[in-house]
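Please check this:
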Amino acid sequence: MMLCVKCKRRKGEILIKSLGKYACPECFKKIIFKRFSKAITINKLIGKKERILVVIKNSNDYVLFYLMCLLAKKHKGLTVYSAKKRVKGLRTLNQENLTDIAIRILTGFLKNKKELLKVKHGPLELLSDYDLETYARLVGLKYEPVKRRGFKADVLELLNKLEKTRIGILYSIKGLIEDIST
């Protein structure tokens, strides 16, 4: 039996793709929330008394809303709302996740579109489709990775193949562009 990489007590059942190691469900949820919080803290995305709106376009956006509500419980001045469209007076955050960012960057690189070679910071930037889908299942939410078509589907297929041999490739792509941009 493989033990959880974090607590070292329970069975490691869930692969943490970026590490190539396994965690128990409880620790996996903690790791995901920590990455989510880290993205917000490092990029200073939220102020002390902030009113944030999560625009709910599809069922996947409920995962961001859920994580934002957990964060609001820890930060007293943070208030989180959800709506189907933007609301005047409330700030929205970039809802791109790590997989979206990597696909956009590689697409921009391969098609020579420099405007796509930028990292737009958001609370999900350290979480891939896999991370979000697994987290959602563990907390009882629905998450289905966005269906990519055409060239973006080909880029995703390439990323999935690379990810099998190169642990953390999505982070590497994002980090490389950040390094070049600064």
The chain has two domains: 20-92, 98-137+145-181. The mean pLDDT is 90. The chain has six helices and five strands.
